[in-house]
Amino acid sequence: MTAPVFLADRDQMQRDSIVLSGAEGRHAATVRRIRPGERADVADGAGLIAECVVTAASGDRVELLVRSRRQVPVPDPRIVVVQAIPKGDRAALAVETMTEVGVDVLVPWQAERCVARWPADRADRSLARWRSTAREAAKQARRARVPEVTGLASSADVTARAAASARAVVLEPGAPDALAGLPLPDGGDIILIVGPEGGISPAETAAFTGAGAVPARLGASVLRTSTAGAVAAAVLMSRSGRWS
Under CATH, which architecture does the 5-71 domain have? Predict the structure, then answer.
């Protein structure tokens, strides 16, 4: 069975013995019920993994002895998903599934036709929820790297990202080209732009394609915004060799 993954800061990761305490220790000891003698991995969320053996566990504290360390290289190409803000609980679903698939960067986007909005007085709280969800999903998926969740992006921000990327794709159900057939770069950032339930506006589409983005469809069926990013990322992971 694959060892569970927990998170610790970089300083802890350099020690021969790692102590998980607080919420992380409680999750390990009482939720995962990890016990002395069992294997566990500890990551810093930025690619460093310590392979450990549990030496003590009680309450909200777990002690682990480091057996070895390894550094997981930065993925290349990187998969960046610009995600129009979904409604309600679907935002958590989108973040969870994209993290599990292996997306490297998540960009929350306030698209023109988004029903959900992040008012200025609640934007920090909403962003914190996305980042917390990504962190927990990364542990569940046993990832060495927690995906970066950027600040809220405007359409102008997304246009700039598209222009600077190695390849940018706008997911459009009616696009003539399929994502599965698009040429992909060997490295750099591949950006997927996922619109809201009401679709990407003509002005936004014009801006993105003017910056070099290519419209592409996933298949015959139309997916919700909360699932399209994960499915599209899975296609790219397979085609780019990230899942080989």
Answer: Beta Barrel (2.40)
